[in-house]
Specification:
The protein is 44% helix and 12% strand. By secondary structure, the protein is of the alpha/beta class. The longest helix has 22 residues. It contains 27 helices and 21 strands. It has an eight-stranded parallel beta sheet with strand order 1-10-9-8-7-6-5-2. A six-stranded parallel beta sheet has the order 15-17-18-19-20-21. A three-stranded mixed beta sheet has the order 11-14-16. It folds into two domains: 182 residues, TIM Barrel (Alpha-Beta Barrel), CATH 3.20.20.210; 368 residues, TIM Barrel (Alpha-Beta Barrel).
Length: 764
């Protein structure tokens, strides 16, 4: 009998209960015992929901207090020395210190989980002496069994993935570190086996990237060791986000595990090709990931059923598990409360809970069928067809205009060297101009004002007046701090993507479609469901007002087309490239509106360019080509003296420096402080000839960095970058920080800049 399985479930809760509990604990408003109790209640509720739906294999240990990579590091006692950890179970204060930083110690680096918008904490191996501090998967298994009678499926991040995503060791030390970690994994698995666990899911998403021969040999060593150590424990070796490389497919499916989980949504073409070419082992279960774990659209269940029947010819019904393509962590919890969406859109959506239903329905349809199930399948197809033929998806005016501009080569009228002279003559900026990335702290007062306006309790004029008051406060403060290039603060914006989506056609917004981005930070991605079109100026009013209050330049602030694309849930009926060009066309009109209103510095943020990079290296060039083109389409029509800025964060850039330069922004600001200046190494290997600001302090940590810290960061950067083109700024926007710490940090940044100007003035 075919079974159903989920790879992971959203931890945040339908009302973001998880977030609220975490933040209450961090704020000192909740005792630790109550904190653990409330999180257990949320965790059990999630398990019960899957149990009630009828899911056969329910994941346990997918629930986290912050992040699953951090959990794994803590389970092995891998704690950076600066946190003064003395061994044993990692205290909750140390756990959160690693994630968020403390007054005494900087947080660990945070970066994207493969090509998703989820951030994980990067384990630091240097100096660590790993030991199994507590068997978290075992505790999760016991809890589910004792409290709910669930025979759970423990979820574990595999050794190769954990090692490849960690830092603090040299490539030549990889095998040494593997030898340190393997006994701990063996101990963990043997304890699970002894407990009577039937299946364990070991996540190895690193297998869908380009592995070298040495990594394939490490993989064989790992799973041969596991098979010998825990022979009765069934391991589902789980991959997701893409297909296994065809060159490695035969080696991977031959590993001594009970099952192989394949992504048959985002890795459909590659995985099916490999199965057809090389078959699938007769002694293994195939975990068929046919329900999209990171997209919000209803599945065409008829198509999925046909695919499953095709797979059944390779793996018999007894050796087939129907499952999500990846964890449901990446989608909202439920469409239940989405009462304001157009029916043609809502009917075509499936969030986590609806995907559970799709899994169960598919399992029943595959096993038995029947008229009731046939009716459900037909209803699904009707809903998808209604959206496909809607007016929103068939805007000929947009489609024709985008076809014209995307056929043209997007270029500024002159090269950077010429533009730089024009901009210096216009702005007369000092050495090492100082600025911020855009947003300033959004206090409870700001959030309350927005809520009153949205509820209709405040008029538009009341709200606009309040926003102008906030702009006034922060323009004056920026002048007092002596920043060179100012921003208006973005107090009118909830989110850097949602704000623009609300002002463009082709977008829809959920009431409760929250997903976790990092830690307790949740975002509510817009839904791009139709053709994107410009309706009118989006940022001009606030930016022009801010500029009227100061003689210093004020940057206009926009979110770029690729970031809007990558931070939204995107329609699937046309290519992402085409959606990007539609966005670029709409944003170009906003750039032109700002310039026409007298704004001569315009920042088009693209923090999410790299996270959209395909996991297959062979596909990188094509993606980067159209991503760069979309940015240039947005910005190419301005005058030489108009300075285009952009911002990127939380990324490894060494492999795409050429593409960043090809974007042809006059100034780019890049996160570097949380990675402890490692970004600077990229510029030791690559010359960068445009304006650049490497973030000199980490805005995600609740501490005020010293002048000395920032001076050191500036000095390191200026060893490899041209001082005449160097800007000084924080890592990212300051929206989530408090007033006092923001002001103090910026004052220190300006002081560090003054010292740098004195030091480097004669050499420039």
């Amino acid at each position: 009998m075919v079974k159903s399985s989920v790879l992971g479930y959203p931890r945040i809760g339908i009302n973001r209960e998880w977030k609220k509990v975490l933040e209450a604990f961090w704020a000192g408003k909740m005792e630790e015992s109550e904190f653990h109790s409330q999180l257990q209640e949320i965790r059990l509720h999630h398990l019960r929901k899957q149990q009630d739906q009828g899911i056969d294999f329910i994941p346990v240990n997918d629930f986290s207090y912050y992040d699953q990579m951090l959990d794994t590091a803590a389970m092995f006692g891998i704690v950076p020395k600066r946190f003064n950890y003395e061994g044993g179970n990692v205290p909750i204060q140390v756990y959160y210190g690693i994630a968020r930083g403390t007054k005494e110690a900087a947080a660990s680096e945070m970066t994207k989980w493969f090509n998703t918008n989820y951030h994980y904490i990067v384990p630091e191996l240097n100096g660590a002496e790993p030991v199994l501090t507590d068997n978290r998967p075992l505790l999760a298994y016991r809890e589910a069994k004792e409290k709910l009678g669930i025979e759970g499926k423990p979820v574990i991040i595999g050794p190769l993935t954990f090692l490849k995503l960690s830092k603090g060791y040299k490539d030549t030390e990889t095998d040494t570190w593997l030898d340190r970690l393997l006994p701990l994994y063996v101990q963990l698995l043997q304890e699970l086996e002894k407990e009577g666990v039937q299946w364990v899911q070991i996540d190895e998403p690193i297998l869908v990237t380009s592995l070298n021969a040495a990594d394939v040999q490490r993989l064989k060593k790992i799973y041969e060791t596991f098979a010998a150590a825990a022979p009765t424990l069934k391991i589902m070796l789980q991959t997701y986000f893409e297909a296994i490389d065809v060159d490695n497919y035969s080696d991977i499916v031959a590993l001594p595990v009970a099952g192989i989980g394949l992504d048959l949504v985002h890795g459909l073409s590659g995985n099916i090709s490999s199965i057809k070419a090389y078959g699938f082992p007769a002694d293994k279960v195939l975990g068929a990931g046919v329900i999209d774990g990171r997209g919000i659209w209803r599945a065409s269940l008829g198509d999925k059923l046909a695919l499953l029947k095709e797979l059944a010819e390779v793996a018999s019904e007894e050796r087939l598990i129907i499952q999500t393509s990846c964890s449901l962590l990446h989608v909202p919890v439920s469409t239940e409360r989405e009462t304001k969406l157009p029916s043609e859109l809502k009917d075509a959506l499936a969030f986590a809970d609806e995907k559970l239903g799709e899994l169960v329905l598919l399992t029943k349809a595959f096993s038995a069928g029947g008229s009731e199930i046939d009716n459900d399948l037909a209803e699904c197809e009707r809903a998808l067809a209604a959206l496909k033929h809607s007016n929103a998806r068939n805007r000929r005016d947009v489609q024709e205009a985008v076809a014209i501009i995307s056929s043209q080569k997007p270029e500024r009228s002159n090269p950077f060297a010429t533009r730089h002279i024009a901009q210096q003559q216009k702005w007369k900026l000092p050495l090492f101009p100082t600025t911020t990335i855009g947003s300033f702290p959004q206090s409870a007062e700001v959030r309350k004002a927005r809520q009153l306006w949205r509820k209709g309790e405040w008029s538009q004029e009341q709200y606009a007046s309040f926003i102008r008051e906030q702009i006034d406060i922060w323009i004056k403060l920026q002048e007092d701090i002596e920043l060179d290039v100012l921003v208006h603060g973005e107090f009118e914006r909830t989110d850097m993507v949602e704000f623009f989506g609300e002002k463009l056609e082709g977008f829809a917004f959920t009431q409760n479609g929250w997903v976790q981005s990092y830690g307790s930070r949740c975002v509510k991605p817009p839904v791009i469901f139709g053709d994107v079109a410009f309706k009118g100026p989006m940022t001009v009013e606030e930016t022009v007002y801010a500029q009227s209050q100061t003689a210093r330049p004020v940057k206009g602030m926009l979110t770029g087309p690729i970031t809007i694309l990558n931070w939204s849930f995107v329609r699937e009926d046309i290519s992402r490239e085409q959606v990007a060009y539609q966005l670029a066309y709409g944003l170009r009109q906003e750039v032109e509106a700002l310039e026409n209103a007298g704004i001569g510095m315009i920042q088009v943020d693209e923090p999410a360019v790299r996270e959209g990079l395909p996991l297959k290296e062979a596909e990188h060039a094509h993606y980067l080509s159209w991503a760069v083109k979309a940015f240039r389409m947005t910005t190419c029509t301005v005058q030489d003296s108009t300075q285009i800025h952009t911002h990127m964060c939380y990324c490894e850039f060494h492999d795409m420096i050429d593409s960043i330069e090809a974007m042809d922004a006059d100034v780019i600001s890049i996160e570097t402080s949380r990675s402890h200046g490692e970004m600077i190494h990229s510029f030791e290997l690559n010359t960068y000839k445009l304006g650049i600001g490497l973030g000199v302090y980490d805005i995600h940590s609740p501490r005020v960095p010293s002048v000395e810290e920032m001076t050191d960061m500036i000095d390191r950067a200026l060893h490899v970058l041209d001082p005449k083109l160097f800007w000084i700024n924080p890592d990212c926007g300051l929206k989530t920080r408090g007033f006092e710490e923001t002001a103090a940090s910026l004052r220190n940044m300006v002081e560090a800049t003054k010292l740098a100007r004195e030091k480097y003035a004669l050499s420039v």
